[in-house]
Write a structure and sequence with these properties.
transport; Neurotrans-gated_channel_TM; binds 2-acetamido-2-deoxy-beta-D-glucopyranose; six-stranded mixed sheet; synapse; 2 domains; glycoprotein; about 50% helix; 8 helices
């Protein structure tokens, strides 16, 4: 080994030893400093936020309404925006909506001086640790579902903000008369369940116009369209005291297009097909088959569609009445066709029997009595003089009687024909009447629906 290199090695080893001896206490110093710093940040007692929260809650009593003067009311400010209409149940008269609900009130015991707490302006506190108003929705018929948010926001002047989404199932009188074109008006009334207006008063956060026309959060692509949310403040007077209440009316309109396409148009088509059957001659038997198939088709259609039409105990939708009237017309026109065929058939079958036979029987007897004298003279009188004369008169009489019987027969035929024609004209007239009332009902219904649609479109 090169002695120079050996020297270098020795020097390096010595250097390392001295460096290590110098660094050992330094390392321990660095470690102590780092651990001290870590201990500093793991102890929350040192943080301003912790200090503030502790200071606020230490002497707080959540049982006490947070006012300095007992006769001062706590005003709770409310806000609501409709997020979605989840279900409209006309049969049970229930409305299920999802709303964003916000309430703000002032807590006089939860305020601080920001310059004493590191300029903290807002802090979140557990809701369970502070006083909160007991505001409920009056119309609820099912447990309101809302995610449990444990915290509220408090700012340095003691204003508390609480916001949460709620799924409300509320009772609402749903009007289904104008079914695919209906507008529903359901109210959500907020009030304190216990506190009278002297203790807890209510007010709006935003202006009422803003709330009324707020559709920003509303999900647009559902069956229902949000028209407006008008609201009113009122004081409910009852034996237990006067209660402040705020009522929001959720006004929604159904989008009718899907029902027009799936319910109204097929039904009108079926009626038009049945109308077409009036162009078949009324005594045509194929008409019965045709009408029966339309009736069967209509029944199948109604059974299929019965789930789509809302059923409610109080009012029947106009469209249901229309379907029933259409069905009644189908049945009426079918029974009329059956009657017509029955009378025509009866007439044809009894034609050779009753009217014709009994009339022809009379004429037969007539013919026999007339021919009798012809036979008698031929057999009895045998004078050669008058024989030619008598033969002549005999043939003439025969011809005469034959002609008479022929004319009788024709008369009878004509009479039967006239009877048949009378029946036919009567039935034709009935047919016409039915056809016209059909057209009238269909026209009336179309006009009613059209004008209703136009009216509600313009709202
Ligand atoms: C907040 O505290 C600072 C300093 O302690 C003080 O100067 C100030 O007056 C206080 N403000 C209020 C509103 O008490
Ligand atoms: C606290 O919030 C209320 C309502 O938002 C506001 O009026 C008040 O000025 C706020 N206080 C502070 C100190 O920011
Ligand atoms: C909704 O109903 C309330 C009463 O419950 C009524 O005051 C309000 O005018 C109605 N709104 C509409 C748009 O029909
Ligand atoms: C719904 O439509 C309205 C306007 O018609 C719009 O202002 C709103 O942002 C829409 N909402 C959603 C969730 O798309």
């Amino acid at each position: 080994m090169d002695p120079q290199i050996g020297m270098l090695f020795r020097c390096a080893r010595a250097c390392a030893r001295t460096l290590a001896s110098v660094m050992a206490p330094l390392w321990s110093l660095i470690l102590v400093a780092a651990s001290a710093q870590a201990r500093d940040s793991t102890y929350p007692e040192k943080s301003a936020l912790h200090h503030l929260t502790k200071t606020l809650l230490q002497k707080y009593h959540k049982e006490v309404r947070p006012v300095h003067k007992w006769n001062e009311a706590t005003t709770v400010y409310l806000d609501l925006s409709v997020h979605a209409v989840l279900d409209v149940d006309a049969q049970n008269q229930k409305l299920k909506t999802s709303i964003w609900y916000r309430e703000v009130w002032n807590d006089e015991f939860l305020s601080w001086n920001t310059s004493m707490f590191d300029e903290i302006r807002e802090v979140s506190l557990p809701l369970s640790a502070i006083w909160a108003p007991d505001i409920i929705i009056n119309e609820f018929v099912d447990i309101e579902r809302s995610p449990n948010f444990p915290y509220v926001y408090v700012n340095s002047s003691g204003t508390i903000k609480n916001a949460k989404p709620i799924q409300v199932v509320s009772a609402c009188s749903l009007e289904t008369y104008a079914f695919p074109f209906d507008i529903q008006n359901c109210s959500l009334t907020f009030n304190s369940i216990l506190h009278t207006v002297e203790d807890v008063n209510l007010a709006f956060i935003r202006s009422r116009e803003d709330i009324e026309h707020d559709k920003k959060a509303f999900l647009n692509d559902s069956e229902w369209e949000l028209l407006s949310v008008p609201s009113t403040y009122s004081i409910l007077q009852s034996s237990a005291g006067d209660f402040a209440q705020i009522q929001f009316n959720v006004v929604i309109r159904r989008r009718p297009l899907v029902y027009v396409v799936s319910l109204l148009i097929p039904s009108i088509f079926l009626m038009l097909v049945d109308l077409g059957s009036f162009y078949l001659p009324p005594n045509c038997r194929a008409r019965i088959v045709f009408k029966t198939s339309v009736l069967v088709g209509y029944t199948v259609f109604r059974v299929n569609m019965s789930d789509e039409v809302p059923r409610s105990a109080v009012s029947t939708p106009l469209i249901g009445i229309f379907f029933t009237v259409c069905m009644a017309f189908l049945v009426l026109s079918l029974s009329k066709s059956i009657l017509l065929i029955k009378y025509l058939h009866d007439g044809r079958r009894s034609e050779p029997k009753r009217p014709l036979l009994c009339l022809r029987g009379g004429s037969d007897a007539d013919v026999v009595t007339r021919t009798d004298p012809r036979i008698q003279p031929v057999g009895v009188t045998e004078s050669p003089n008058g024989q030619e004369h008598q033969v002549h008169s005999g043939t003439l009489k025969e011809v005469w009687s034959q002609l008479q019987s022929l004319s009788n027969y024709l008369q009878v035929l004509e009479q039967v024909d006239r009877q048949e024609i009378d029946w036919l004209t009567l039935l034709y007239r009935f047919d016409q009447l039915l056809f016209r009332s059909y057209l009238l009902v269909l026209g009336l219904y179309t006009i009613t629906l059209g004008s209703l649609w136009a009216l509600w479109r313009s709202l």
